[in-house]
């Protein structure tokens, strides 16, 4: 395989990790835990893994002999920078416990476990992928582990390979499924531990024990570089308004972090739209007002950042989507049988009066996109809804109305972009390379401690890596009950942007100035070598959250 000079140099990078993980560790247990909400319902569903304590690893001089324990790993869901380093951390951690331990990768996600497709991951294979982006070492998939038939089928291959523990590397839904699997294997005394690792570039899998989901740092740096480049072009050509949609279906963490890094003229935060009960019309008026104010200064250019999931946070459309999801969960075949040119009228006739009126008011293209195939969790695939085009068109129409009324005299030429895949498989930043390796190594320590139903946790990451705190958090602690496919299901509670949090407050205190003036920042590409303040910086979000 031909490699670039950067790949060769990155292969030699030694990830930094918490001091406590460098030798033999012992476990410190905290108090019993409970779920973030719906305690009675969650405990009833997880009687064997509910209420377990938070754990922390500390150094010890004790010598411990660990028996051989083979481990399986699964990459689940969308890619995120650093996944390969999680696996490298698991591999190195397990080998440090016992040189005869083996690590097996199940191919193409959870489906590999069910279909018994796997590969032993040897040192030669692992070394090829250290500090690289992507999930191509074993591939990923979106098969949901949710039935006892699947669990039993998986157990067959786990027993055959003498696998004592399974690590599932994924987002909130994947880790929810990992917890269900842990509960089942514990209930039947299968002798298999299940550990999760927190992955999602969207940044919505976090709490006081999981301060960042891996990949978020790298993805935001990649997007911010490109937005910065667009802003430089924008400020040079001085004739375009760029509408830029960013990843983030359920939360606006990416949009907010990128706004903090590049200081655009306008950034929508979905959670604020919902809190203020804004309509699409309200959002369009706000953007058009910013465009008009800049035009009055002679600046007919600018940037607008839009979170991917915005449409679901507009209250009227959120209510519509909720009813649509429920209806199509039970009538998808009936809907599919309707001729395409009659589907719009069919939906209008089946919804409640309010939601029917909202649906009927939407442009044909957007209405159509709301009824397209659902994702595996039964949700609208909002990444397919071209919100950036919709807003650019609506702002243009609003400005044309104002021009006719003599309220606006500027020029408006929009350009639209969607940044998604560009950030998912980027080479991990030093932060993500270190953090992910530490998460994997911590997972091996949780396995050695006999834990199951836990998520690997590494905290205090704004400090130097040797001061990071490694441990584990029970997955049930993060759960609540939510409606999925028309039924109440236990799921990890998504972390939304907190409007009373330091990152949003900082953004809110500066956005009026950024809107009118041209205060662009151009972050440039990710730096891997050089001064710590350039190479090892965390996200601005994390620094503000921790008062750094």
UniProtKB/TrEMBL annotation:
<feature type="site" description="Important for catalytic activity; stabilizes the transition state when the phosphoryl donor is PPi">
    <location>
        <position position="199"/>
    </location>
</feature>
<dbReference type="GO" id="GO:0047334">
    <property type="term" value="F:diphosphate-fructose-6-phosphate 1-phosphotransferase activity"/>
</dbReference>
<keyword id="KW-0808">Transferase</keyword>
<feature type="binding site">
    <location>
        <begin position="239"/>
        <end position="240"/>
    </location>
    <ligand>
        <name>substrate</name>
    </ligand>
</feature>
<keyword id="KW-0460">Magnesium</keyword>
<comment type="function">
    <text>Catalyzes the phosphorylation of D-fructose 6-phosphate, the first committing step of glycolysis. Uses inorganic phosphate (PPi) as phosphoryl donor instead of ATP like common ATP-dependent phosphofructokinases (ATP-PFKs), which renders the reaction reversible, and can thus function both in glycolysis and gluconeogenesis. Consistently, PPi-PFK can replace the enzymes of both the forward (ATP-PFK) and reverse (fructose-bisphosphatase (FBPase)) reactions.</text>
</comment>
<comment type="pathway">
    <text>Carbohydrate degradation; glycolysis; D-glyceraldehyde 3-phosphate and glycerone phosphate from D-glucose: step 3/4.</text>
</comment>
<feature type="binding site" description="in other chain">
    <location>
        <begin position="200"/>
        <end position="202"/>
    </location>
    <ligand>
        <name>substrate</name>
    </ligand>
</feature>
<dbReference type="GO" id="GO:0005524">
    <property type="term" value="F:ATP binding"/>
</dbReference>
<dbReference type="GO" id="GO:0046872">
    <property type="term" value="F:metal ion binding"/>
</dbReference>
<keyword id="KW-0418">Kinase</keyword>
<feature type="binding site">
    <location>
        <position position="78"/>
    </location>
    <ligand>
        <name>diphosphate</name>
    </ligand>
</feature>
<comment type="similarity">
    <text>Belongs to the phosphofructokinase type A (PFKA) family. PPi-dependent PFK group II subfamily. Clade 'Long' sub-subfamily.</text>
</comment>
<dbReference type="InterPro" id="IPR035966">
    <property type="entry name" value="PKF_sf"/>
</dbReference>
<dbReference type="GO" id="GO:0003872">
    <property type="term" value="F:6-phosphofructokinase activity"/>
</dbReference>
<dbReference type="GO" id="GO:0005829">
    <property type="term" value="C:cytosol"/>
</dbReference>
<dbReference type="InterPro" id="IPR011183">
    <property type="entry name" value="PfpB_PPi_PFK"/>
</dbReference>
<dbReference type="InterPro" id="IPR000023">
    <property type="entry name" value="Phosphofructokinase_dom"/>
</dbReference>
<feature type="binding site" description="in other chain">
    <location>
        <begin position="247"/>
        <end position="249"/>
    </location>
    <ligand>
        <name>substrate</name>
    </ligand>
</feature>
<feature type="domain" description="Phosphofructokinase">
    <location>
        <begin position="70"/>
        <end position="312"/>
    </location>
</feature>
<keyword id="KW-0479">Metal-binding</keyword>
<dbReference type="GO" id="GO:0006002">
    <property type="term" value="P:fructose 6-phosphate metabolic process"/>
</dbReference>
<feature type="active site" description="Proton acceptor">
    <location>
        <position position="202"/>
    </location>
</feature>
<feature type="binding site" description="in other chain">
    <location>
        <begin position="421"/>
        <end position="424"/>
    </location>
    <ligand>
        <name>substrate</name>
    </ligand>
</feature>
<feature type="binding site" description="in other chain">
    <location>
        <position position="308"/>
    </location>
    <ligand>
        <name>substrate</name>
    </ligand>
</feature>
<dbReference type="InterPro" id="IPR022953">
    <property type="entry name" value="ATP_PFK"/>
</dbReference>
<keyword id="KW-0963">Cytoplasm</keyword>
<dbReference type="GO" id="GO:0009749">
    <property type="term" value="P:response to glucose"/>
</dbReference>
<feature type="binding site">
    <location>
        <position position="172"/>
    </location>
    <ligand>
        <name>Mg(2+)</name>
    </ligand>
</feature>
<keyword id="KW-0324">Glycolysis</keyword>
<feature type="site" description="Important for catalytic activity and substrate specificity; stabilizes the transition state when the phosphoryl donor is PPi; prevents ATP from binding by mimicking the alpha-phosphate group of ATP">
    <location>
        <position position="173"/>
    </location>
</feature>
<protein>
    <recommendedName>
        <fullName>Pyrophosphate--fructose 6-phosphate 1-phosphotransferase</fullName>
        <ecNumber>2.7.1.90</ecNumber>
    </recommendedName>
</protein>
<dbReference type="Pfam" id="PF00365">
    <property type="entry name" value="PFK"/>
</dbReference>
<comment type="subunit">
    <text>Homodimer.</text>
</comment>
């Amino acid at each position: 395989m031909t490699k670039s000079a950067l790949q060769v140099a990155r292969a030699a990078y030694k990830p930094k990790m918490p001091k406590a993980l460098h030798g033999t560790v012992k476990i410190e247990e905290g108090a019993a835990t409970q779920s973030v909400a719906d305690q009675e319902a969650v405990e009833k569903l997880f009687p064997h893994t509910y209420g377990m304590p938070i754990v922390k690893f500390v150094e010890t001089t004790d010598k411990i002999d660990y028996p051989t324990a083979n481990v399986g790993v699964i990459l689940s869901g969308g890619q995120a920078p650093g996944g390969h380093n999680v696996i490298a951390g698991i591999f190195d951690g397990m080998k440090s416990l016992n040189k005869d331990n083996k690590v097996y990768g199940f191919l193409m996600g959870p489906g590999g476990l069910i279909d018994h497709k796997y590969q032993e991951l040897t040192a030669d294979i692992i070394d090829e992928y250290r500090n690289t982006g992507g999930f191509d070492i074993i591939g990923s998939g979106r098969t949901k582990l949710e039935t006892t038939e699947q669990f039993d089928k998986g157990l067959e291959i786990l027993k055959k390979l003498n696998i004592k523990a399974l690590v599932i590397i994924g987002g909130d839904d994947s880790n929810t499924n990992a917890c269900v699997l842990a509960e089942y294997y514990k209930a039947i005394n299968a002798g298999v531990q299940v550990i999760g690792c927190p992955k999602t570039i969207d940044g919505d899998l976090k709490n006081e024990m999981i301060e960042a989901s891996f990949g978020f740092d790298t993805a935001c740096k990649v997007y911010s570089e490109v937005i910065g480049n667009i802003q430089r072009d924008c400020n040079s050509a001085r004739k375009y308004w760029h509408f830029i949609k960013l990843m983030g279906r359920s939360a606006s963490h990416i949009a907010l972090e990128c706004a903090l890094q590049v200081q655009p003229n306008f950034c929508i935060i979905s959670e604020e739209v919902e809190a203020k009960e804004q309509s699409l019309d309200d959002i369009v008026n706000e953007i058009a007002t910013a465009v008009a104010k800049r035009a009055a200064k002679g600046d007919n250019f600018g940037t607008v950042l839009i979170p991917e999931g915005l449409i679901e946070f507009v209250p009227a459309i959120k209510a519509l989507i909720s009813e649509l999801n429920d209806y199509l969960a039970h009538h998808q075949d009936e809907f599919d049988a309707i001729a395409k040119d009659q589907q719009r009228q069919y939906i209008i006739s089946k919804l409640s009066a309010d939601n029917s009126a909202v649906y009927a008011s939407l442009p044909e293209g957007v209405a159509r996109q709301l009824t397209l195939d659902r994702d595996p969790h039964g949700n609208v695939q909002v990444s397919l809804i071209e919100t950036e085009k919709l807003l650019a068109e609506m702002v243009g129409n609003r400005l044309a109305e104002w021009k006719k009324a003599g309220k606006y005299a500027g020029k408006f030429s929009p350009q639209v972009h969607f940044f998604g895949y560009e950030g998912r498989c980027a080479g991990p930043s030093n932060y993500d390379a270190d953090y992910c390796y530490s998460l994997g190594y911590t997972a091996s320590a949780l396995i050695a401690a006999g834990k199951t139903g836990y998520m690997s946790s590494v905290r205090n990451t704004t400090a130097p890596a040797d001061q990071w705190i490694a441990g584990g958090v029970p997955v049930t602690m993060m759960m609540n009950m939510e409606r999925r496919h028309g039924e109440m299901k236990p799921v990890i509670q998504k972390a939304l942007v907190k409007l009373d949090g330091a990152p949003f407050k900082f953004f809110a205190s500066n956005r009026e100035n950024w809107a009118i003036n041209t205060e662009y920042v151009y972050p440039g590409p990710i730096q891997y070598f050089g001064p710590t303040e350039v190479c090892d910086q965390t996200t601005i979000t994390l620094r503000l959250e921790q008062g750094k």
